[in-house]
Write a structure and sequence with these properties.
- The longest helix has 42 residues, at 3-44.
- The chain has helices at residues 3-44, 49-81.
- It has 82 residues and is mainly alpha-helical.
Length: 82
């Protein structure tokens, strides 16, 4: 990709990101609120904050990879059949 095409693509990428960023942020705030509720429940059951801080990020990373793989498979299959 030449520099002019790369610059145009980068500009379009940034515009696309910015058009969705507010929605992504809104979803992340919802996820944060849900996570805080889950953590309060865990605390009521006697789970320590240090144990949660070790466990929860790993689970989010695992779940992100799982969802990404499932969605990739789903959309790759649709593209191949089109």
């Amino acid at each position: 990709m030449n520099e002019k095409a790369k610059s145009a693509a980068t500009s379009q990428m940034i515009q696309s990101w910015e058009s969705f960023e507010w929605l992504i942020k809104e979803k992340l705030i919802q996820l944060d609120n849900m996570t805080r509720a889950m953590m309060r429940e865990m605390q009521y059951c006697g789970v320590t904050l240090s144990l949660m801080n070790e466990y929860i990020p790993k689970q989010f990373a695992r779940l992100w990879e799982e969802v990404a793989a499932e969605q990739s498979e789903k959309y790759d299959r649709k593209e191949r059949s089109a």
